Amino acid sequence: MSNQREALLEAALRVLNTADPFEKARLGDVIATKWLQGFISLPYLPSSHLPVPDRPARLTNVKLIPPSLMPKLGKAGSLQSRQAIVHSLVHTESWAVDLSWMINSEGNCGCDGFSLVD
Hints:
mainly alpha, elongated, disordered C terminus
């Protein structure tokens, strides 16, 4: 599919289906730039019926743990505590990126979408 015929829905689904976080960030930046520059001008193509994934793609070595089972982060008084806080913020940002692309895809396809948690 030509990039000029790609709609925002298809682009959002490409991001959601990308597991590698660095590639996901790069792809998201490219798509946002194309959208802002007008190269992606349609929210969706009426002729395409693309499924929204149940979950955003993640690398196989990422283990999802409910927040209630995570150790306390502390008050940043030690190196270990500061590292845990940064690690937590990175995961939060990762989910925020997926959530923003999920909102784009759901808003453009009229589907139920996926769940971020089990």
